[in-house]
Amino acid sequence: MAKTETFRQSEASRARLEAVLSQIEEMGLSRDKGARVTGRINPKLLELARARAGAMSDSQLLEFALANIVIEDGFADAFTAARGKIDPTLDLEA
To answer: For residue range 47-63, what is the model confidence (pLDDT) as tens digits?
Structure first.
């Protein structure tokens, strides 16, 4: 069963990667690649991120990570801000 779960995660990771990169392509953010970023990070963090995203080059991984920040839709903040604002008389069991 663990093998199947790993396969599903891999498929989900691949689908997410494709969706994110497609979205930044539509935004015109994948064409000009003239900027360069360097830095040092924990090797285990890099290994886990690469495994979660679906093993890719450092450049692709960085592009994917930055794209996730850019396209983040603010749902978590909106959800948190709405806490306690549902009408207490609303029938949620209907």
So the answer is: 999 888 887 888 889 99
